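Example 3.
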Amino acid sequence: MSENPPPQAARKKNGAVTLSMVTYFLLALRNLTRNMRRTVLTLIALVVAIGSLTFMLTLTEGYLGSMKDNFVLTNFGHIQVNAPGFQEDGLIDNYMADTGPAIAAAQADPNVIASSQRVYVSGLANVATASAAIIVIGVEPEIEKSVTRMAGFVTDGAWLEVGDNGGVVLGIDVAETLEAELGDKVVMTTQAPGGDFSSQVFRVRGVMESGTPEIDRLMAIVTLEAAQAWLELGDGATTVVLRVDNHENTDVVYERMLDQLDGQLFETQRWFDVDPFIQQIVESSDTSIIFILAIVVVVVLGEIINTMFMALYERTREFGLMEALGTGRRQLFAMLLWETTVLVSIGGALGYGGAAILTAIYGKRGIDLTAFTESLSSLYMDPIIHPVMDLKITVYILATIAITALLAGVLPAWRATKLNPVEAMRQI
Amino acid sequence: MALIETKDLMKVYGLGEVSVKALDGVNLKVEKGEFLVLAGRSGSGKTTLLNMLGALDMPDSGTVRIHGEEYQQLSKNKRALFRLRHIGFVFQAYNLIRVLSARENVAYVLELQGMAKAERLERADKWLEEVGLGGFGKRRPDQLSGGQQQRVAVARALAAAPDIVLADEPTANLDSTTATELLDLLVELNETHNTTFIFASHDPDVISRAKRLIQMQDGRIASDETKG
Ligand SMILES: Nc1ncnc2c1ncn2[C@@H]1O[C@H](COP(=O)(O)OP(=O)(O)O)[C@@H](O)[C@H]1O
Ligand SMILES: [Mg+2]
């Protein structure tokens, strides 16, 4: 009579009961393919939910990004530095006699791509038959090109040449009001520091159309040198405009500028300090994204919990058997959690992958909303949306998938550990 | 010390007037290497007793000692561990995990016991060979006949080197030829490995192989005879 020798490991009295990750994964995968129809249906729901959520995020990212770009690059720049008081009243009296420290701080900042000086002053433009209220902007013609897109808005004639101190580029509505053609003379009148009125004659070199009413109706652009001479500002200017490499860095650059210019007489503002409207749109869209996210999570959660409970009931007998064989509660729990996780991961990966492909395709091609363009352009919105995938979205989606898997997996898994093996094995 | 010793096992199902005494004071000693059959009519308490002996179910009162250890004191989790180390089960049907192959079914319990992969697969193959299923290791349960499935269950029970193998109506779903072959195997395993077997069955074929036969009636032991 030979004994059945116990295997060494089997008699480790305190050795914890274990199953390997490979075993859990294998069980999960095979059990999921056991009811292919149900698994596929659940996967479709997951792919659609995660996929459309992802694509919606990239679309939103795309149009919000272009909206910010459009606002910032149309005219304002990311950050503006002024002399104290100028932001309050816009009076030319509050100009910076020396822009040197602001320019130096901007040029030293690693996240500032470019910076330019401007003179802002309000006034009146006259021709023989008509007049129009204007805002005169004195710009550095070449440098301005690397700060904003203004030069690109010229639809008729040309942008100012360096040294062309007798030329003006008018907003299209200004030009229409004045019935001014290229080459026409326009008399522009404004107040110099101290309050004296001062007039100057300019020739129309170009007409610009930005699609943004504030610009098209008011702008009259001359060279910085012309404005300085006209208003007797010397080397001074009212404003230094900064272009930052990335919207995300606006705040850090802003903080550094405040630091750098601390104790000197400057005021600094970000684009959204001036026009909070767009920032409000961005924030309200963040809120609605979280709202939609919550809805998607709840719907998907319900679907998966339902699927997993069906799987649990279908296999009640088998879980009872496993328990009879010595499977611990932890192992049963892990088994169902793994199954849910594998299911959600596959669905999530396919959904995310599909949306990423769509984003790549439409990111290049763009989604054309020209039909709505009239109402959109005043919101600095491009008629063509280019969806953008970024790290933030990827993290969002990954987190959604992980949370969904955990939430959906825990309940059925917990129920599995509550089964009584004797009762469970009564079931067929 | 006996391998198994029960004292005044009681188990009542239901409450009040419709309650059933499934076990009504069972005192039983089983020694190592026995080949014991619990017989008796349907509803006489065979399964209930077997489940108590296997730490699957808890008595309302009374004690079960296996190796002098009382499992009633243990938590649900510890009882699972207790079964893993001491008890092998062969049930009437649906013994196998459906998504695992024959050798994976055998190896599953060995993995729970903490055995390394190569070792447990080798051991699984050896035991499949032993029950006459060499070469069937890769088959899933639905690719095996009822008799073959029961053999895999036997291989799984024995591979884990338990103190006791409990089999509840193991032949009930088999035709008589297949049942006879399975019983031949079990008797042989009892003799070659000195493994303790306890059956619950009213199958005459099983009863005729018993080395010790206990008749159950209304949750009590009605007779207890040791043969040859
Ligand atoms: N879970 C249960 N609930 C109610 N009654 C039960 C339950 N399990 C067993 N019984 C009853 O206990 C008695 C013994 O059952 P059982 O041990 O299964 O007998 P056997 O295996 O000999 O057929 C029977 O009367 C049965 O109806
Ligand atoms: Mg029974």
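Chain B has one domain: 4-226. The radius of gyration of chain B is 17 Å.
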